[in-house]
Amino acid sequence: MDTTIGILGNDFDITTQFVENIITNTKASQDQNHIKMNIIINNYLLNKNINEINDILEKIKESNIDYLVLTVNDRRLYELIEKKKIKIINKTFDINDYNLIKKVINICGKEMQE
Amino acid sequence: MKIGIIGGLGPLATVKFMEILNKLLDNDKEMQFVVINDPTTPDRTNYILDNNKPNPIHSIIEIIRKIEIFNCDLIVMPCNTASYFYKEIMANTKIPFINIVEETVNYLKDINIKKVGLLATEGTIKSDIYKHFLEEKCIDLVLPNKNEQKVISSIIYDGIKAGKKINMNEFNTIIHILQNKGCEKIILGCTELSALRMIYNLDNEVLIDAMEILAQKTLSYKKN
Fold it and tell me: Does domain B101-210 have CATH number 3.30.870.10?
């Protein structure tokens, strides 16, 4: 069963770059070898109240992800995610963090592109 | 407004679609996005050429179900070949759906094109989906011949989808051949070819990028 990664962010540009980094760094000779991702980009994410954020997180859980990656640094958000018992891959986010990309690819059972 | 994107068909094309949207968004923070990227969706061309192969519609409908969880206002799908399933897609959701093929043909009609070439997968070509919409608008269609189509299919599958370098001379030769047959424009009717255009910075005015047209239509869609 393929692993599905949830990706949640508040910046379209940064989240798109991150997704592209995962795709271009995954060793895959055909589409079907790439990683399944549910990507949610909400520009007002950090302005939302706790109930609204919990609602988004519930929907993310309902979409059947195995792990979540946040493409934004926000302590409140991380705490809410942990309270929801969603498995999260990263505690902080940096678009230049190559190790995070490697971690995502490996956790999905894929190899890095040489 | 919340846009749902049926993604993973293929994954590189999906992220290039997101790039185009990002460029066109111009800081419009009202738009929200849900991209369900499932690259394990069975190959669309394989099924169209041989109905005994796995049918991608089941995976596409599962993607739609996930998009529905997020209460999206619109669904778009950056994949020309999967537009073969557009009737089933529309029958399986109440959320409005924009058809990349139909919108591309509408655009060609708006700019008064009478004769067009098509670069696409074998599946798109065999399905006659472009032919159907073009005939409705009285636009003539010119297709690559068998050998030229083999080159295009190889560029798509052995090149872009496999993450390998492309022989652009072969690609450009086919464009010239279609132009010499009187094509006023040539449709990049496969989103992997749209990705190729972006990666290799193709600036040829004869090319009409179906994925770019879809992005424009997506952002100009107004909720009723």
Answer: no
Average pLDDT over residues B59-72: 98
- Of B68-77, B81-90, B148-157, B158-167, the poorest mean pLDDT is in B158-167
Q: Which CATH architecture has domain B2-99+213-220?
A: 3-Layer(aba) Sandwich (3.40)
pLDDT of residue B223: 63
Burial bucket for residue B206 (CB in 10 Å: 0-12, 13-18, 19+): middle
Q: How many CA atoms lie within 13 A of A5 on its CB side?
A: 26
Cβ within 8 Å, pair A31-B10? yes
Please, what is the average pLDDT of chain A?
94
- Contact map slice: B 84-143 vs A, CB within 8 A: none
Question: CA Rg, chain B, in Å?
Answer: 17
- φ, ψ of residue A84 to 5 degrees: the values are -80, 0
The answer for residues whose C-beta is within 8 angstroms of residue A29's C-beta and 6 or more apart is B162, B163
- CA distance to partner chain A, nearest, from residue B1 (Å): 10
Which residues of chain B from 60 to 79 reach within 8 Å of chain A, CB to CB? 66, 69-70
pTM for this predicted structure: 0.96
For chain B, residues classed under CATH 3.40.50.1860 are 2-99+213-220, 101-210
| Closest partner CB to B19 (pick from A16, A33, A62) | A16
Tell me the pLDDT tens digit for each residue of B169-184: 999 999 999 999 999 9
pLDDT digits (tens, 9 = 90+) for B114-148: 999 999 999 999 999 999 999 999 999 999 999 99
